[in-house]
Amino acid sequence: MIAPETLVFESSAELIETARARFVDLVVRAQEARGVASVALTGGSNGIGLLKALAADSGDICWSRVEIYWGDDRFVPATHPERNSGQAFDALLNHVAVDPSRVHVMAPSDGEFGDDIAAAARDYARLIGNDTVFDVHLLGMGGEGHVNSLFPHTAATAENVLPVVAVTDSPKPPPARLTLTFPVINASREVWFLVSGAEKAEAVAAAHDGESRDDWPCAGARGTEGTVWFLDHAAASGL
Ligand SMILES: O=C(O)[C@H](O)[C@@H](O)[C@H](O)[C@H](O)COP(=O)(O)O
Question: Which residues form the Glucosamine/galactosamine-6-phosphate isomerase domain (predicted)?
Answer without folding.
Answer: 11-229
